[in-house]
Amino acid sequence: MQDIFISPLSGGLAGWVEAFPHAKIADFLKPNKSQASETIVFWLHMNADRQEWLTKTIKQIQQQYTQAKIVVLANSPNQAEALYAMSLGVVAYSHAYSPAQVLREIKTVISHGGVWMGPDLLKRLIEVSSTLAGNQAEQVSQHLSLLTNREKQVAIEAAKGLSNKEIARILDITERTVKAHLSASFERLGAKDRLHLALMLNNKS
Amino acid sequence: MQDIFISPLSGGLAGWVEAFPHAKIADFLKPNKSQASETIVFWLHMNADRQEWLTKTIKQIQQQYTQAKIVVLANSPNQAEALYAMSLGVVAYSHAYSPAQVLREIKTVISHGGVWMGPDLLKRLIEVSSTLAGNQAEQVSQHLSLLTNREKQVAIEAAKGLSNKEIARILDITERTVKAHLSASFERLGAKDRLHLALMLNNKS
DNA sequence: AAAAATATTGGCCTGAAGGACAATACAGGT
DNA sequence: ACCTGTATTGTCCTTCAGGCCAATATTTTT
């Protein structure tokens, strides 16, 4: 799992380098040419005056890397910004000057499908939500994080209602392979068949 | 890091044992005599009719073990219960029959300070908190109005993921009749199979 | 270097799903 | 009485899904 830090500070912050000596550090998002199957963690260094940049960058990443996990490291963390970032699909939000140890913890958490946020933020989220009746929009499930890349692709197509044969065609693999990935997906997600899988991925369970 | 499962089912569920062969399984919380400094993960097996028990047990754990992480594994997960549990300080909420793999993921996440919850719940938390506004009534699909009463009943069950046989049993009709109603439903709604029907009735297409 | 996942494909088999082609019974409206 | 829509069930048949038995190559992790 590769780490890419994006920060206006060339060289990044000391804690980052300490935590991930082999990470790439850039000052802007480079176009994704290679169709890497590997999951990439993007660490976005957020400054109060760069909200527009944050929005744009997150969207770009999500377009170019379906597998990416995005972390926002804020110079001046605040709940509003955290909420905003997480509503865009960011899976962790922390202080830019978090020590290396914390950064590594964050990485462990998100790479196993978890979410990382400060205790205050979590509490706030829960308090507010407990009192309100909410709605839900569309976004694909984080169940997907439990699947491997290929399984994910197959599962997504299956959840759209495609047959194994159709999936095989568009992914250019054998129908047999589709079955294998699907069976593995059922196992991992605890779904009993493709319909249950679809319900899960469509936020119905 | 020690794992303690608390479940009314002696022996616990298979997935737990598979995930954590060395965990203790009890049917009630034992008093803590030793002042262990080690972090303990408590996995509470929740049943719909035991909310009182859940509340009491969580409070006891928090009193006796300052370091404890508490996970709730629910037989019938739902958002309300999840919100309630997390408002008590639970750091993960999942299905009781989650596969071993998921349980291990959860443990990894929480033991590194993360929070684990279903994608629905997270999304709901964020949405509600960030918008704080408009809700939207639970609109049952308008598709259903195209069906006759009996077809409707059958279609709804099918959309939950039940098999023809199961539907036949709960509606007390023959499996053949279920098929007839389903075929009629497909015809009327223009669905090509039960999965598409499910997607339609779940407002996904 | 060794071990563990992941991606790929094969064949075989069972059971479920859904279409084709029916029949019967009952309700309500014309 | 007659027609129409609904509800019910039957048999036969084909296709598909998914489990079980694998094996192999590549990648990732330890």
Written description of the protein model:
By secondary structure, chain A is of the alpha/beta class. The first copy, chain A, has 9 helices and 5 strands. Chain A has 2 domains: 2-117, Response regulator (Rossmann fold, 3-Layer(aba) Sandwich); 142-201, Winged helix-like DNA-binding domain superfamily/Winged helix DNA-binding domain (Arc Repressor Mutant, subunit A, Orthogonal Bundle). Helix content of chain A is 47%, strand content 12%. In chain A, strands 2-1-3-4-5 form a 5-stranded parallel beta sheet, with helices on both faces. Chain A starts with a strand and ends with a helix. At the A-B interface, helix 3, helix 4, helix 5, helix 8 and helix 9 of A face helix 3, helix 4, helix 5 and helix 9 of B. The structure holds a DNA duplex (30 and 30 nucleotides).
Largest sheet composition of chain A = 5 strands, parallel
**How widely separated are the two ends of chain A?**
29 Å
Indicate the percent of residues in helices of chain A. 40-55%
CATH architectural type of the largest domain in chain A: 3-Layer(aba) Sandwich
- At the fourth level of CATH, the homologous superfamily of the largest domain in chain A is Response regulator
Oligomer: homodimer
**Spatial ordering of strands, largest sheet of chain A:** 2-1-3-4-5
Morphology of chain A: elongated
Strand content of chain A: 5-15%
**What ranges of chain A have pLDDT less than 50 throughout 5 or more consecutive residues?**
131-139
Look at the helices and sheets of chain A and give the structural class: alpha/beta
Task: Please give the radius of gyration of chain A in angstroms.
Answer: 19 Å
Kindly identify the CATH topology of the largest domain in chain A: Rossmann fold
Order of helices and strands of chain A: EHEEHEHEHHHHHH
**For this structure, what is the CATH class of the largest domain in chain A?**
Alpha Beta
Number of helices of chain A: 9
